[in-house]
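Why do we bother with holo predictions? Because pocket geometry can differ from the apo form. Keep that in mind while you read this record for 4'-phosphopantetheine.
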Amino acid sequence: MRIAVCPGSFDPVTYGHRDIIKRAAKMFDKVIVLVAVNSAKTPCFTAEERVELIKVVTEGMDNVEIDTFDGLLVDYVKEKGAVAIVKGLRAVTDFENEFQQALANKILYDGAETVFLTTSAENMYCSSSIVKEIAKYGRNIDSFVPSKVRDVVIERLCKTNKKEEEK
Ligand code: PNS
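The structure, written out:
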């Protein structure tokens, strides 16, 4: 069985992530969506919350599983016997960082390849950070996330909601 791991912060998961997961699921027998720790980021949602939101967007994808891990990605990949790490690439801006990670992961563990999938054109500008930024101001994030994710994100981040709670 050819297993791929699709790692990320998923804080929160977006249509861009869903697209990459769905396409990876066609290429591999099993895809594990892994909520991992990016030490450069402070997440807004707990790992459990992120898993719940990923469940929503991967509903019906039968060969997709979701997991969490707070160690080195390659250790997880090795433990699962995965042959690939799948990442989405939007633009040149993603490239340098992703390239560094891919090289470092390859040095740490030679048993899996990093596979980059180019983003679909409609998700070119879709990122978790942009979703959170727009949600803070209570504006429409429907182009980026499904309604169940939208509701959770707006509830957590919208400044107007917060002011109401403080009253
Ligand atoms: O969605 P992100 O934040 O771009 O995902 C980055 C992530 C979580 C995949 C990356 O930081 C990662 O692999 N973290 C696990 C720890 C690890 O292996 N770090 C070394 C990467 S070279």
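Residues 7-9, 36-38, 41, 72-73, 101, 104-105 surround 4'-phosphopantetheine (CB under 6 Å).
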